[in-house]
């Protein structure tokens, strides 16, 4: 059984989708990051990085944090949602998986931070992260121009990683941002229509997560401001 440490946000969404697609038995373990639960000492033993998602696999005793590592772990465990088993395709899968984990996620996160949450509107920071988030989505979109899924004809963990960050695209890049990325939007719509994606989206209703980004939530989420 998988204990799934979850908050309704983009990186945990990737894992919610995998768990729902695979049919693995899992228990939802809510971590309300707007209440600071990511810093609970018990949770820090599972994820020292104080972020969601994380999993504990009670079958094997493995603890895994970071959504990319979790996707790879679960795909290896089940043998599901992996592309054709050869070195060339595996290399392609790893390259795009890392691009989502190290490019799309962090730049989108910083774009949201400086546009929506930073106490000062810093044009330089807004411009940089908007540019980089947009540039990364442009890479995904171009890659999908002549293939159905990120690894060709097979729906894999790379598509799940892309899907996790696709939902917030209008919030990150603006209301009409999808017009710039029609191929990525096609993939997003196709995955969102899958029953597993719908169930993954409904997980947020299984716990009363705090939704307000008030002063207290900002202190937990942006601890660099604590002293000021
Ligand atoms: N590289 C990590 C990033 C995890 C991450 O930033 N998670 C966000 C939700 S998408 C979080 O827990 N934020 C709470 C916080 O920053 O305190 C991953 O891919 O899992």
From TrEMBL:
Domain GST N-terminal: 1-82
Residue intervals of the GST C-terminal domain: 86-213
Pfam families: GST_C, GST_N
Superkingdom of origin: Bacteria
Family, similarity comment: Belongs to the GST superfamily.
Name of the featured protein: Glutathione S-transferase
């Amino acid at each position: 059984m998988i204990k799934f440490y979850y908050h309704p946000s983009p990186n945990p969404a990737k894992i919610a989708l995998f768990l729902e697609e695979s049919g693995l038995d899992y228990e939802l373990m809510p971590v309300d990051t707007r209440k600071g639960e990511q810093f609970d000492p018990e949770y820090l033993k599972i994820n020292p990085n104080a972020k969601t998602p994380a999993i504990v696999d009670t079958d094997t005793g493995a603890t895994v944090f970071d959504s990319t590592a979790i996707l790879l772990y679960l795909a290896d465990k089940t043998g599901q949602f992996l592309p054709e088993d050869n070195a060339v395709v595996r290399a392609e899968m790893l390259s795009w998986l890392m691009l989502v984990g190290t490019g799309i996620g962090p730049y989108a996160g910083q774009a949201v931070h400086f546009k929506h949450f930073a106490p000062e509107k810093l044009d330089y920071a807004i411009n940089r992260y908007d540019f980089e988030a947009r540039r990364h989505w442009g890479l995904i979109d171009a890659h999908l121009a002549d293939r159905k899924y990120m690894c060709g004809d097979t729906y894999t963990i790379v598509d799940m990683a892309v899907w996790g960050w696709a939902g917030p695209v209008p919030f990150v890049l603006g209301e009409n941002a999808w017009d710039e990325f029609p191929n990525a939007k096609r993939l997003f719509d196709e995955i969102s229509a899958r029953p597993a994606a719908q169930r993954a989206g409904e997980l947020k209703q299984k716990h009363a997560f705090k939704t307000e980004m008030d002063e207290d939530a900002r202190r937990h989420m942006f601890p660099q401001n604590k002293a000021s």
